[in-house]
């Protein structure tokens, strides 16, 4: 399923915006028209993927020095060893990094890790529910 953003006009003439999840754009248009909205704009919201992150890394590879990566890795390892969650550790280290290219790269890692963490929590909850039903 894809996520679409839209701008519509309601029967009273007010312009409204929002998002809707559907398999294709046509389904969103049909749902909005069924609700008696006039569709002004609609577009798919592109989700950030791991491939986008790899492209970003390749683009920035020349500007992030090995020294910065080594220092960052050691600091993150120390934080994780101390029991700090990885996303929080990334946030802490982001404040200390001076290299602008490296600083721009870290939030993407944090978002992906956070999304994967949420997915794992959901999967664990589903598994726990299934086990309790047995």
Termini separation comes to 31 Å
> What is the number of independent domains?
2
Number of strands: 3
Order of helices and strands: EEHEHHHH
**Strand percent estimate:** 15-25%
Order of strands across the widest beta sheet?
A: 2-1-3
Low confidence ranges: none
The helix count comes to 5
Shape: elongated
Report the biggest beta sheet as strand number plus sense, adding barrel if it closes.
3 strands, antiparallel
Mean pLDDT over the residues: 76
Estimate the helix proportion, in percent: 55-70%
Description:
With 134 residues, the protein is of the alpha+beta class. The chain folds into 2 domains: 2-45; 50-130, no CATH class. It is built from 5 helices and 3 strands, in the order E-E-H-E-H-H-H-H. It has helices at 25-34, 50-60, 66-81, 86-96, 100-133, and strands at residues 2-9, 15-22, 38-45. Helix 3 packs across helix 4 (86-96) and helix 4 runs antiparallel to helix 5 (100-133). The protein is elongated, with a radius of gyration of 21 Å. The chain starts with a strand and ends with a helix.
What is this entry, summarized?
The chain has 134 residues and is α+β, with helices and mostly antiparallel strands. It is 61% helix and 18% strand.
């Amino acid at each position: 399923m894809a996520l679409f953003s839209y701008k519509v006009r309601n029967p009273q003439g007010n312009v409204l915006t929002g998002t809707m999840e559907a398999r294709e754009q046509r389904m969103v248009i049909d749902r909005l028209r069924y609700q008696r909205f006039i569709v002004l704009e609609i577009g798919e919201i592109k989700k950030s993927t791991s491939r986008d992150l790899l492209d970003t890394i390749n683009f920035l590879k020349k500007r992030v020095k090995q020294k910065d990566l080594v220092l960052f890795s050691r600091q993150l390892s120390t934080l994780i060893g101390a029991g700090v969650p990885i996303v929080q550790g990334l946030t802490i280290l982001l404040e200390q990094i001076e290299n602008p290219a490296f600083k721009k790269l870290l939030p993407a890692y944090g978002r992906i890790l956070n999304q994967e963490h949420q997915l794992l929590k959901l999967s664990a909850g589903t598994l726990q529910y299934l086990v309790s039903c047995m």
